[in-house]
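input
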Amino acid sequence: MLKAPAAASSLHVCHVCATTLDSHYFANLGRGLHARGLTVSGVSLIEPETPAWLREIGGDYACLGARRKTAFPGAIVRLARWLRARRVDIVQTHLVDGGIVGVAAARLARVPLVVLTRHHTAEVEMIGTRLHVWCDRLLTSRADRVVVLSQAVKTHMVNREGAAPDKIDVIYQGFDFDALGATDEDRRRVRAELGLGDAFVIGCVARFFRTKGHPYLLGAARELARDIPNLKVLLLGGGDRESIEAMVRDQGLADRVIFAGYRHDVPACMRAMDVVVHPSLTEAFCQTVVEALAAGAPLVATNVAAAPEVVTDGVHGLLVPRADSHAIATAVLRLFRDPALGRRMADEGRRSVRERFTVDRMVTNQIDCYHRWLPPDALPAAGAHAGVRGT
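output
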C-alpha cells in the first residue's frame, strides 16, 4: 500500500513517451504519483487511446500523431501550447523520439523542470546509427536531470557518453507483486493447456528481436536435448519470429519448441516453466528477471547490464556470460540435476525482489527527486498553483 504524503503537493507532472504509456511501469508510477497528491498527465507521439490507468485517475492525455520525424516540428509546437495551457511543472520523457519532442516542447513552454528517462544501455550502439548515439548525448545535455532504471545505465552513460554523474539518478522500477504472483495451480493449468505433460520445460519471455538472444537459447536447447530427453522450450512474446522459426527447423527442434505468442498470464506461464532462461544480450533493467523471480521460477540469466543488481549468482539464480549457448546449457543442466537448488534460489529470489523493487519505493524516490531538482526560482510560481512543496 502506498504511503500518504508527508506534505500535500499538487505539482503537475506530464510523461511524454514515443510509443504507448499503457504499461505496468507507467501505470504503477502514474497511480503512485497521483496517490501522493500530484497531478499526472500523459502524451504519446503515436498512440491515440488513453491508457486505462490514466482514465482511472482522471489525468489529461494527448496524442500528437507524429509517426514520422518530419512531423516533429509541428508536434513540438502543439505540445508546448498544451503544456502551457495546463501549467505543467515537470515534463518527464521516455524513449529517444519522446525525448526529442518532449524536451524541445518543454523548453519552448518554459516548463520549470525537464527530466529525461533513459530506458536503454548499449542497444543504440548495437542496432542504431551514429545519429542515434548523438541524439542520446544531445538529449542528456538539454535535460535538467536524467533518471535511469539501473546503476548499469548510469555507468554506461558516464563511461561511454561522457555524461556528468551528478546529473543522473538511479530509480529502480517498482512492481505490483500482487499481480505477479503465481501458484502451483497456475502451473498445472498452463501445462495442461499447452500440452506440456511431464516435460522438463525451459522458457523465455521476450519479444522476438535480435538483442534478446533467442538463438543462444535454441543453441542451448539443442545441446540439452542430449541429456534431457523430455525437454521442451516454451517461447512467449510478440514480434517478428520468422527467423527464429527457421532456426528451430534448421536445428531439428520443431518437436520441442512451443511458440505461445503474447499472453496475459505471463506469471502463470513462468511458474509453469522448470527454468526461466533470460538470454538477452543487453538490458537497461531486467524486468523479466524480476517477474520470473516474483513468480517463484528458477532462473538462468545472462550477466548483462543490470542483471547483477537484481540477481546474486548462486543465491537468487544462475548468471552466465552473454552469447554463450554452452554456458546456458550447463546452468540449466545443473538445475535439472539438482531441483532442490532451483527451488531454494527461487524462494530466495522471490523474497529479495519483493523487498527491493516495490512501487512505494519507486514513487518515493521519484517524488524526492522532483522536489530536489525543481529550481528555486520556479518554486514560488509552482507553489501558487501547485500546493506546498513536499520534503
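quick obs: The longest strand covers residues 12-17.
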